[in-house]
Structure formats: structure tokens, C-alpha cells
Amino acid sequence: MSTAMVIATREIRERSRLLIVAAALAILPFAVALAPGAQGNRGHAIMVVGAAGAFNFAIAIALAMGISTICRDLSEKRLSFYFSKPVSPFSLWFGKSIASLLIALLAAVIIAVPSYLGARDAWRQAWNTGGDRLALAFPILLLLFFFGSHAIATMMRSRSVLVALDFILLVAAVAVMAAILRPVLLAGGMRMTGGIGSAVAGGILIILAIAPVWQLAKGRTDIRRSHLEFSK
What we know:
The chain has 232 residues and is an all-alpha fold. It is 85% helix and 0% strand. α7 runs antiparallel to α8.
């Protein structure tokens, strides 16, 4: 775990410019509030722009990091540097993952906190009218975009015929799940369907989080073999 923390610290230091960009974006809500169209409702304008900026920028970071964290090093033949050191696949993947997700969260906080301090009443009103559910879903969306984009990048960068097989199996899995849930839905089991769907989604997210460890352990620096092992 200490090796993972060393890798995470290095990644955060290299990506720290994203936090500077976030600090610049934190000024945007107040600049928008000064526009003539925002007069009389500046608190709401600050809240909307601050929340949207924090959410979208954090999601964009998670998406970009998922695409580049491992796959870019693989395609540019730089991953061998880590394997020349006493670094385990677990430490490599989770060190980079922790750094990427932490940067996304910190960027969201840097943008959102000033707008919250500048428009507390508008933030509280939004929180009481559905904002709390969005806030709870936000970390899950970060994980989904990060791990999902890594999966897609692994498949697409390999330029292998395995992509077609991945697609076929995905369609088959969706069709099987729909066939399983259809009788439950027809019987009026909406709550049970939601529970099954949530359980399956959680299982997929866990698999996407753990699969890259196997990918790195077995695929090493070969991008096509890495794709094959990830798909397994």
C-alpha cells in the first residue's frame, strides 16, 4: 500500500495544474453573476454556475484520466518503466486510480466551495429540492466514468478484432438481463427490478475496478494481450 501511495503522490504532483484550472473556474460563477441578466437573482446564478462547473469539470477529469492513466502509457511503451521497478500491479493501478479520483474530487470542491460561501441560501434551496440526491450520485458517477473510460480505452487502443467480440458479448449480456427482468416487471415488481439492477450495476463497477490489476499482471506491456486479459 505504501508503494501505491508513492505512485499516487507522484501522479497528483504531475497533474496539479488541473487544480489551478479549477481555481480559475471558481471565479466564473461570480463573473456571471455580474452580468446584467443576473440582476435580482445573483445568488441563484452563482449556485447554478458553481454547481454545474464543479460537476462537469470533475466528470471531465475522471473521463480523461480513465482514458490516459494506463492506456496512454501502454500505447506509448512507457509502462515498462514501472515494471522495471519493484512495483506490483495492484500498487500501480490503485496508486494511479486514487490520484485520478482524488484530483477530480478536489477540483469539484475547489470550484463549488466559493460559490457555496457566496450563495448559501440558493445552495440550501437546491439541496432541499433534489440536490441531495445528485450529490449522493456524484461519487458513483465519478467511479463509473473513470473505470468505464479505462475499459473503453483499453479495448479501442488495442485495435484488435477482440473489440467486435466484446461488443457481441455486451449485447448478449444486456439481452439476457432484459429477459430475466421482463417477467418481474410484468408482474409489477418495480422495486425488485430496481434492486436487481442496482446489484448488477454495483457488481459491474467492482469488476471494472479490479479487472485492471489482472490486466497489468498478465498483459504487462503488450497492449493487445492487455486487452485480452482485461476482457477475461
